């Protein structure tokens, strides 16, 4: 998806011009995938831009960094302020936010421990991840022939840049085969997640999503949607799923910061439910967007106002 350029990027404590936010080709992270990152969104609300679950995202960034012994030279509070600053500097009402902490320039070789750590936060307007029409019509997905990296190889508890090369394989395979997105199974054959989304099914009015131990990212949208669903009176369970659970579901959908709540209308050429967005998915999408836009006071604590 092409990037929409804005004016400023926060880089190691300063706001720099978009074009000046560059790094050296011998940066450690480029060669060894030694970075940790987040994907966050800010939404337009009647009180201006508000960041969705900012603290949770920064906590997950810290957990990812801990796994790789990467010391982020900025506090949680400093990164939260920087996020608000860069949104204000670019005068954006709604945007995607990409903080990344990575091993920079100065050392070569796999050992990352002596390389400097750089931190940047970029923001830009980013529409619907899988296309605007996907939010209503749903997407067609393929179960990938590539297995998801497991807890003792590249642990999905961390959101590290190098780990995404696993999802890149699955995504390419699905696109070349004519689908919109992939879902990966783990080595045991249980469903994990998409290349950039968690997955839910609806069966007889009950929502089920794989447990994070299956090998999916501990998605922040996943947790928010579980809460929204329970608050709407739905039973929600976390259970291992096999591919036929997806084929036979009444409804199926993705969640993610970028993907938001995206219906899945086909899995491996099997039509799910009526072949378009189902009623439970629609209701959850409505609840999700109402919360992101600050229209539901119950979830006010999920938003951090940029101009508070
Ligand atoms: N699984 C994966 C593998 C994943 O990358 C994401 C986020 C999720 C699940 C959902 O997590 P959360 O955003 O916390 O609800 N993917 C991010 C990056 C996508 C990209 O293409 O880059 C995102 O949605 O920001």
Q: Can you offer a commentary on this structure?
A:
- With 308 residues, the chain is an alpha+beta fold.
- The chain has two domains: 8-124, D-amino Acid Aminotransferase, Chain A, domain 1 (2-Layer Sandwich), CATH 3.30.470.10; 134-292, D-amino Acid Aminotransferase, subunit A, domain 2 (D-amino Acid Aminotransferase, Chain A, domain 2, Alpha-Beta Barrel).
- Helix content is 26%, strand content 28%.
- It has eight helices and 17 strands.
- It has helices at 28-32, 54-67, 76-89, 134-137, 164-176, 220-231, 243-247, 279-292, and strands spanning 8-11, 14-17, 35-37, 40-45, 48-52, 95-103, 117-124, 139-143, 181-185, 191-194, 198-203, 206-209, 235-238, 251-256, 260-267, 270-271, 303-305.
- A hairpin with a 5-residue loop joins strand 9 and strand 10 (191-194).
- It is globular, with a radius of gyration of 19 Å.
- The two termini are 32 Å apart.
- The mean pLDDT is 97.
- Residues 39, 167, 193, 196-198, 216-217, 219-222, 255-259 line the site of ligand PPE.
What keyword list fits this structure?
alpha+beta, 8 helices, globular, 308 residues, 9-stranded mixed β-sheet, D-amino Acid Aminotransferase, Chain A, domain 1, 8-stranded antiparallel β-sheet, D-amino Acid Aminotransferase, Chain A, domain 2
